[in-house]
Amino acid sequence: MRYWAWFAAKLAVTVAGVGALVAWVSRLFPPENDPLAPLNDGASFLLCDLALLLCFLLFAGALYLNIRDQRYRCRVCLRRLRMPVETGSWSSILQFGRPRMEYICPYGHGTLREDELHISGLSAAEWTANSDDIWAELCAPGKDSDRD
Ligand SMILES: [Zn+2]
Questions:
Q1: Cβ atoms within 10 Å of 81's Cβ, excluding its own
Q2: Ion ligand 1: residues, Cβ under 5 Å
Q3: In angstroms, what is the C-alpha Rg of the chain?
Q4: Residue ranges covered by each domain of the chain
C-alpha cells in the first residue's frame, strides 16, 4: 500500500509540474480570435506547437523516470535496491540457469530478480519478500538434512 501511495504521489507531482508548464505555455501563446484569419501569425502557431511537443516529451521522460525509479525500490521500506548481483550464465544457460540480475534491499526486506534474457518481450521483475525471522531462513537447510 505504501509502495503504491509513493508511486501515486510521484505521478501527482509530475502531472502537476507538467500541467503548470502547459498552463504557462498556454498563457504565452493566447488563442487567435480573428475568424477570418485563424492562422494569421503562423510562426507563433508553430512555436506553440513546438512548446507543446517539448512539454509532451518532458512528461513522457518524467513518466519513464518515475516508473524506472519505482521498479528499483523496496516494496516495504521504499529505499533504493542495491548490490546488483549477476546470476546465471549466457554461455551455460542449461547448467547455471538464465542470466538474471538480483537486487536486494539494504535492510533485508526482499530481493528483486529480473531476467536479462527477454525472448518474448519485457518480462516483469520478480519480487521475493524475505521473512522477518532471519534464523528461520538460516536454519531451514539444516532442518531438511535432519529429516533424512
Ligand atoms: Zn526494504
A1: 21
A2: 74, 76-77, 105, 107, 109
A3: 25
A4: 2-71, 82-147
